[in-house]
Design goal:
The complex is a heterodimer of chains A (114) and B (121).
Chain A: E1 3-6, E2 11-14, E3 19-21, E4 23-26, E5 32-38, E6 44-50, E7 56-59, E8 62-65, E9 75-77, E10 86-93, E11 103-104, E12 108-113
Chain B: E1 5-7, E2 10-13, E3 19-24, E4 31-37, E5 43-50, E6 53-57, E7 65-68, E8 75-79, E9 88-95, E10 111-112, E11 116-120
Parallel strand pairs in B: 2-11
Antiparallel strand pairs in B: 1-3, 3-8, 4-5, 4-9, 5-6, 7-8, 9-10, 9-11
The chains are: A mainly beta (114), B mainly beta (121).
Chain lengths: 114, 121
């Protein structure tokens, strides 16, 4: 079956620190990969995505590269801000159509100190 | 900006009672989903819904669960007889119709609501 494994949290960083959040996956078929973010009191929002090997998704200074050889999709940001404090979910979708279920990891809470 | 809304934000119920969780998807979306997250565990897919019928459901979505789009705007999840293990955060999501031609690699973003926290006592 399909599964996503995220590193254990929570993660606490100082502002302007470098961020890496690890994510690995197993999938039957060729998945699309995603990072979702949930800010306090809000729903999950799509942060970035990649649909094929070696694609790099990027948004708001965050990046993640689809690594098929290591089945990974690690999230990175060079300089975090207090406003990045949120829960981050790695997810995949294996679909033969344009709409299908997402398989999520457990999520990791990031807290950024001023 | 259009958003998915969910009510209530927190529902407390006694074991064995029926609960209905409500969602208002984005108005032009046609695909609807429910997910749940038990505290400390993964977000899990429950069910997807399109054209007034279930498209796909997980093993979790047994006979105690049902979904309905009663009036063209609301999308509801009903749990007939709640169990302690149903305590979780329930997320609703919606997405636009698929691309014409049905690209096999296409993905239409799912927009999520803020969730309903269900506590079963």
């Amino acid at each position: 079956g399909n599964s996503v494994t995220q590193m254990e949290g929570p993660v606490t960083l100082s502002e302007e620190a470098f961020l890496t959040i690890n994510c690995t996956y197993t999938a039957t078929g060729y998945p699309s990969l995603f990072w979702y973010v949930q800010y306090p009191g809000e729903g999950l929002q799509l942060l970035l995505k990649a649909t094929k090997a070696d694609d790099k998704g990027s948004n708001k200074g965050f990046e993640a590269t689809y690594r098929k050889e290591t089945t990974s999709f690690h999230l990175e940001k060079g300089s975090v801000q207090v406003s990045d404090s949120a829960v981050y979910f790695c997810a995949l979708s294996v679909s033969t159509g344009a709409n299908s279920k997402l398989t999520f990891g457990k999520g990791i809470t990031l807290s950024v100190r001023p | 900006e259009p958003e998915v809304t969910q009510t209530p934000s927190h529902q407390v119920t006694q074991m064995g009672q029926e609960v209905i969780l409500r969602c208002v998807p984005i108005s032009n979306h046609l695909y609807f989903y429910w997910y749940r997250q038990i505290l400390g565990q993964k977000v899990e897919f429950l069910v997807s819904f399109y054209n007034n019928e279930i498209s796909e459901k997980s093993e979790i979505f047994d006979d105690q669960f049902s979904v309905e789009r009663p009036d063209g705007s609301n999308f509801t999840l009903k749990i007939r007889s709640t169990k302690l293990e149903d305590s979780a955060m329930y997320f609703c999501a919606s997405s636009e119709p698929g691309l014409a031609g049905g690209s096999t690699r296409a993905y239409n973003e799912q927009f999520f609501g803020p969730g309903t926290r269900l506590t079963v006592l």
